[in-house]
Amino acid sequence: MHTLYVAMDETDHSLRGLALGRHLAEQLGASLSVASVVTEAGQVERRREALTTRLAGEGSPVPIEVVANGSAKDTLAGLVDQEEVGLCMSAHGRRPVPELLIGSVTAGVVRRARRPLFLCGPRYAPERHRRVEVVMVGVDGSSLSEAMLPHAVALAERFAARLQLLQVIETGTAGALPRDGDVMESGYLHGLARRLRHEHGIEADWEVLHGDPADAIVSYLDDGENIMLAMTTHGRSGLTQVVAGSVTHEVVHEAPCPVAVWRPPHRR
Question: Fold match between 3-120 and 134-267?
Answer without folding.
Answer: yes
